[in-house]
Amino acid sequence: MTRTCPTPHHEDDVVLIGHGAGGRLTAELLDTLVLPAFNRASGPLEDAALLPGYRELVISTDSFVVSPLFFPGGDIGSLAVHGTVNDLAMRGARPLALSVSLIVEEGLPLAELRSVLGSLGKAAQAVRVPVITGDTKVVGRGAADKLFINTTGIGQRHGSLHPSAALARPGDAVLLSGPIGLHGTTVLSTREGLGFEADIASDTRPLHRLVGALAPLGEHVHTLRDPTRGGLAAALGEIARDSSVAVEIDEHTLPVPEAVAAACDLLGLDPLIVANEGCLVAFIAPSAADDALAAMRSVPEGRDAVRIGDVLPDGPAGRVTLRTLVGARRVVDMPLGEQLPRIC
Amino acid sequence: MTRTCPTPHHEDDVVLIGHGAGGRLTAELLDTLVLPAFNRASGPLEDAALLPGYRELVISTDSFVVSPLFFPGGDIGSLAVHGTVNDLAMRGARPLALSVSLIVEEGLPLAELRSVLGSLGKAAQAVRVPVITGDTKVVGRGAADKLFINTTGIGQRHGSLHPSAALARPGDAVLLSGPIGLHGTTVLSTREGLGFEADIASDTRPLHRLVGALAPLGEHVHTLRDPTRGGLAAALGEIARDSSVAVEIDEHTLPVPEAVAAACDLLGLDPLIVANEGCLVAFIAPSAADDALAAMRSVPEGRDAVRIGDVLPDGPAGRVTLRTLVGARRVVDMPLGEQLPRIC
């Protein structure tokens, strides 16, 4: 019942893993089924929504189903804090409060639950965001896989920042705050025991300070997005679509760590579609691009920030292209479905 | 690792179904494991929390794991709206906005998902609360049971109302807005095919109007609570504990529908511990008790409101007693664990 499937195929009329991948299938599920139920037009989908009547407050919700619960660099607890804090940050907001809701499978060792919650609490404290309310549900063995965590965050916007996925403009510089591909390859390698997890770790970390560093640039900051599910390809594709612009990035500028490249080679994955949990892309007015890069590099989490491309002066709305190392151009497609399930 | 288990029993060091039941095991899990992780003292646990810096705004989160997804009177979609709207209402707030986060099992028929979301959207519209943000995750077959829904709500308090589980006072009248036991027995009967579901339906409904009707009574409204998981016994037990008062209710005033009584008889359940999703208990200053009862009866969802008891002038803090039909008194214990799993 999706757009790509105009004639009903009854065997397909079920939810597929790919519907949760953050790619085209997810977008179709949202457009055809979720948003109509809520009387929402399929306009730009932001990482966080404005609270009616309180224009400085934004809200974001995320359910975390990552498997395994623990991986190099983090666990589902820290990830649940960072993921929601970062979604708030992408709307130019600092976190005010978090809610935490647990769905626990009967039989989960209390030691694992304690460890995850300790990590969650520590991550929240590091960001100075209080956990103000919560909920705990337990389901029988086999009715869930160990532990799922929902975090919902309320954030307060920096007065000067109003970034939106719909505000990228021709000429904008496209900046990336750090290396890509670490989170997805780390989780996958840990889950499947591929061995790369000895050399890499998830980049899971909060990005609110990095956004704070950009706040003085105000209106010059057009768009912020953290390329999580679907990776950089999905993030750029959504921005190009929602802003009706064409984006071009340079392959030689892309910071792909060696171990990520090796893992992707082995797995047949494109690093562009691998999830990240600790970097962001910023679309910045050209006059402020150098200042923005300097501001990003002024905080540890943006130390390796680079300019990876531009919004083209003209070009088909919604198109993302990559200038390859040998100078050719290829179109970067939105990933269709799930190549990396349960990464976050 | 719970309070009742001072010597470690390694075979018990796992999460039990009862940890999610809203009874004593849940309280112990919260006190010993969840709240310490978040640096929270184990003070009164309210249905919704105040947002720091915005004292008129309250937040509540709930994950719904009810099985089956559809039952007489509602489904997981409408329940997810009502549950969170009601938690906000119990802090004297009307709902401003909802977030909705889905965890879907691969293979769920799209028709079922569409039906649930349609019901969710309709319930939200009936309450005039916009769904402003969301998230969708898909997990593989067997990693979840069909569909879990988290809703998180932001509410704005009626200026006059500041109810709290810690504010019940000696002499307060204890009012109940309607019959008890319908939701839990309906879901259980549907799940197990017991046949009672032909005669009963869940009471799932929003209670914000009922609370609105009480708003003119202002400070006389000491405590509001909807007796969901753990039923009336858990709600009264928590209030008695958090307010350090003794509560006594009269069995002959308790509205237990005949079909509920029959189902409870068969199942060996006490209607006092069965979950409700459409009634509330209100602790009201004695001088305003009659006005409060009249106000509750003025809206359809409070038509059958009754006074079921009082806060005793003295008596052991935290104790709830029932005066039985034959005039004896028995202590109403907080339910220990789970007698009715996955009711909400």
TrEMBL record, chains A, B:
UniProt cross-references to InterPro entries, sorted A to Z: HypE, PurM-like_C_dom, PurM-like_C_sf, PurM-like_N, PurM-like_N_sf
Fetch the Pfam families from UniProt: AIRS (PF00586), AIRS_C (PF02769)
Which residue intervals define the domain PurM-like N-terminal in the entry?
A: 46-155
Q: Which Gene3D superfamilies match?
A: PurM-like C-terminal domain, PurM-like, N-terminal domain
Where on the tree of life does the source sit, at the highest rank?
Bacteria
All residue ranges annotated as the PurM-like C-terminal domain in the record: 169-315
Q: Which family does it belong to?
A: Belongs to the HypE family.
User: What is the official name of this protein in its record?
Assistant: Hydrogenase expression/formation protein HypE
| Taxonomic path | Bacteria, Bacillati, Actinomycetota, Actinomycetes, Kitasatosporales
